[in-house]
Write a structure and sequence with these properties.
By secondary structure, this protein is α+β, with helices and mostly antiparallel strands. The chain folds into two domains: 181 residues, Nucleotidyltransferase, domain 5 (2-Layer Sandwich); 117 residues, no CATH class. It is built from twelve helices and 18 strands. Helix 4 crosses helix 12. The N and C termini lie close together (5 Å).
Length: 421
């Protein structure tokens, strides 16, 4: 492996994720090492907060904390979801200035490079960027545009030598460092915005080969991830409290677009625009219960959308990890208001998404044409792969195949370094 370049640093691997991002670099010994991004934390939420009170910009956990503590400003999350979308070049008003979403992504990548520079002592110029198997499902032109946009952002922050690697392949190369014998693995990389699968042959005898193309037996991907799970849970458990599914005086449901957008991280801010606010206010005639509409307007006028989305995400994690019912405190919307989330709710609301995701995994294994029809192991990476409901669905599909949980937030970044020779 080549570990030295003109900048004297070597290859940087950046996993720019929908929910979290991580960076690794190759040490002089060729070993991938993760770079601390927030104090000692090796992964940082992909979040930017524009502070309107002092015109400052914050990133990661600090960005989310400022928002949740009520600091006046704008929180931007799920930025990766905008790649390949017409929204990428749209502008939004931030602290009295129009800023494009493309520029916001560039701002986030710039701080990643700055933090890597601080850690390494020199500014890196060579990078391997992770990318999903599909940025956009079933649209090759938009998918290519998404990668081109990410390349443009990387160039804008100072990288000179930029290559891309599929995220599940990168995860496989990281897993390979710990293997003692050859094995055929299904890598399941379940992130915030996409689910990607790769069947690959790995082993100590293969890891030093210059060309690994023949070891990758199949790849598939689908544009479903943790933020989609959160949206379904929000629509199922929180949005009915604001009127989603409510039958109005004309015996019709309240028009539901506002609820879908309020449940989608990268669309929430659009609901605070004057036009969207006026449309929501006009929905009052569609309600039989005025209190439900009052809650909706309070969420919009006081900008609680991201707070609710964050609370749903945390409730999902609690419910999955503990396997017990949990409650969501919504007193910031209305005194005494709560929502519940049970393991049954997880199964009910996520069943279709999980079925589609597992079908994508099944297709990957079928394309690989494995002799016994199953991989030797399934390697899990990406934060959403920890969801117990997903693991149960995957285990039901691939009976008796062991699940191996990797570095959920750092494995892809480390593997990106190993993918560059």
């Amino acid at each position: 492996m080549t570990v030295a370049t003109q900048d004297g640093i070597g290859t940087l691997g950046i996993d720019f994720g929908t929910s979290n991002s991580a960076i690794a670099w190759a040490s002089p010994q060729g070993k991938a090492q993760l770079i601390p991004l927030e104090s000692e934390a090796l992964a940082m939420p992909t979040a930017v907060f524009y502070n309107a009170e002092d015109n400052s910009t914050h990133f990661g956990r600090e960005a989310i904390t400022h928002y949740l503590e009520g600091t006046e400003g704008r929180l931007m999350r799920s930025l990766k979801s905008l790649l390949g979308s017409p929204l990428l070049m749209e502008t939004t008003l931030i602290n009295n200035q129009l800023v494009s979403f493309s520029d916001i992504i560039t701002t986030y990548l710039a701080t990643l490079r700055e933090r890597a520079t601080r850690h390494l002592g020199k500014a890196p110029t060579r990078v391997v960027m992770g990318r999903p198997v599909h940025f956009v499902d079933d649209d090759a032109a938009r998918d290519a545009q998404a990668e081109a946009s990410l390349r443009q952002a990387a160039e804008a922050v100072g990288f000179k030598d930029i290559t891309f690697q599929f995220e599940p392949i990168a995860a496989a190369l990281d897993y390979e460092q710990r293997l003692t014998h050859e094995t055929t693995v299904l890598v399941a990389d379940i992130g915030g915005g996409t689910s990607d699968f790769t069947v690959v042959r790995l082993g100590p005898e293969r890891m030093h080969q210059a060309n690994r193309a023949n070891d990758v037996l199949a790849t598939t991907g689908v544009h479903i991830g943790g933020t989609d799970f959160d949206q379904k849970l929000s629509l199922g458990q929180l949005m009915p409290l604001l009127g989603y599914g409510h039958i109005g005086p004309q015996n019709r449901e309240v028009p539901n677009r506002v609820f879908f957008d309020l449940s989608t991280w990268h669309l929430i801010n659009w609901q605070y625009q004057p036009k969207a606010m006026a449309q929501a206010k006009a929905l009052q005639v569609n309600y039989s219960e005025a209190r439900l509409h009052d809650r909706l307007m309070r969420v919009l006028t006081e900008r609680h959308g991201h707070h609710m989305a964050h609370d749903v995400e945390q409730a999902k994690i609690r419910c999955s990890h503990t396997d017990h019912d949990t409650h969501i405190n919504l007193s910031y919307v209305e005194a005494g208001l709560t929502a519940s989330l049970s393991t049954t709710d997880l199964h009910t609301h996520l069943a279709q998404l999980l079925a589609t995701t597992v079908a994508c995994a099944r297709e990957c294994v079928q394309r690989a044409g494995l002799k016994h029809g199953k991989p030797d192991a399934i390697y899990l990476t990406g934060g959403s792969s920890a969801l117990r409901t997903f693991q149960q669905a995957l285990q039901a599909e691939f009976e008796a195949v062991p699940l191996v949980e990797g570095d959920l937030f750092g494995g892809v970044a480390s593997g990106l370094v190993y993918s560059r020779h």
